[in-house]
Write a sequence for this structure.
DNA sequence: ACCGTGACCTAGG
DNA sequence: TCCTAGGCCACGG
């Protein structure tokens, strides 16, 4: 496959939309799946523009399971409430049982090597 | 066209 | 195990 920059955002959104209900993933996991493991920042940057799309951005957190992007949501605890609404426990911006609710696209959709 | 910024990650001490 | 430093690439000013 060639040119991914143009499809980069769409790919990120596509993967994010495939995140199951009550599950979360990380920017790095999505980046790795897209073959951009070293450009995880771009994934987060792409999410900034996801407000125009139907993308569950609240289901995407960092590698530690910390809600680093909560400040980009309306209010102050919207992201946390959205997650808790799906049965995910969040304490101090930290997702509990992160390893359990974590959803790896590379593992679910298949790793491309 | 150059520079600074950013919802991150990995490696080394 | 915690902290620091470097790398990544796109976008706005």
């Amino acid at each position: 496959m060639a040119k991914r920059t143009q499809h980069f955002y769409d790919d990120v959104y596509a993967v994010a939309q495939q995140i199951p209900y009550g599950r979360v993933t990380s920017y790095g996991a999505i980046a790795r799946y897209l073959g951009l493991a070293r450009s995880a920042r771009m994934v987060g940057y792409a999410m900034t523009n996801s407000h125009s799309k139907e993308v569950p951005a609240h289901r995407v957190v960092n590698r530690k399971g910390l809600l680093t992007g909560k400040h980009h949501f309306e209010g102050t605890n919207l992201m946390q409430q959205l997650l808790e609404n799906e049965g995910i426990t969040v304490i101090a911006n930290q997702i509990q049982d992160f390893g359990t609710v974590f959803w790896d696209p590379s593992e679910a959709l298949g790793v491309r090597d």
